[in-house]
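Whether sequence alone determines local backbone shape is best considered at the level of individual chains. Part of our work consisted of pairing the sequence of a single chain with a tokenised description of its backbone. This step matters because it turns folding into a mapping between discrete strings. For completeness, the protein is quoted in full, as a sequence line and a line of structure tokens:

_____
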Amino acid sequence: MRKIAKAPKSVIENGGFQYGCYNQPIEKVNLLDAKIGGLGFAKNFKLREWQAFQLYSDQGWFIMAALYNTKKVCLVQFIVYNTRTKKKIRCEKKVLPGSLSIPSGLHNTTASHRSKGFSFEVKHDVYGFDLTMNVHIDARKSNPRISANFRGLHDCGSNTPMVTCMPFSQKRGMYSHKCLMPVEGELWIGDELVRFEKESSSIIIDDHKGFYPYRTKYDWATALGFGDNGVRVGFNLTDNQVLDQKRYNENCYWSDGEMVPLPPVKFVRPNGCKGKWLIQDQEGLVDLEFTPEIHNSVRLNLLLLASKYEGPYGVFNGKVKSVDGRVFEVSDLFGMGEQFYLRS
């Protein structure tokens, strides 16, 4: 199993990536200091960055919220799904890079987008244990007005994160900070109020930056909720283009605040993306089955820019094991998967 170390102060030191897997926040997320060649403007244009969030309430609500800035394509999303009624409200907007702010790090920073009828702001104070999200979206077409106010307990002492700095090549790499934590707040769907109580609601953050390959592809899955014993649980599993995945990967299972590292995995879809997905490793520690119940697909082909995206929501079943022999049963845990390709 790969080494989980104490975090360095900076992602980049003396122009080089501090490759490793860590269990603490990295204070200085300074990827633009990397010596990868090119002027600052060109370097910034190559840097893909986003903040994505999944929220779940045991009352049957799942939310996917994200601010994406790939420099060529910028997107803001706030998607609400009721797992009981199977009703989805999708609020999505393609935006200009200048209207989207993704900060460097999680210490007294803000991620945001504001435009007519669409406001999305997330404030971070990881050393003050705080994550605050405020969203306001006007009614559009068949969608009702959406308003949300959430507060997550981003206490990395009680809720251990998976923080990584991983290589795509000798000079280029990526950073991510993923953490499962309690969340509380309110969601307004038109005149309907939905309350998220911290004892029964969770949020996963993915703070993410990287100098990705021109042709990017990855498989990814995440889920969150509560086990049969009422313990807060979740996981993150990715198969991407990172080198030496036995040493560098972001796979983990969270249980009651503990982060359990997992090995590299592979995704198999014998009946395509709409059929069941199998997620397994070579060591017998991960054995999961994902059953999609609602689908999200995107296709884009603009000569130099092309994208293929499948992102269904559904339930996971199976088990994962820790290297010390503990078994974690996964039973109808709700989440999402992605099959992603981007040429940009």
User: Anything to note?
Assistant: Residues 67 and 302 are 22 Å apart (CA to CA).
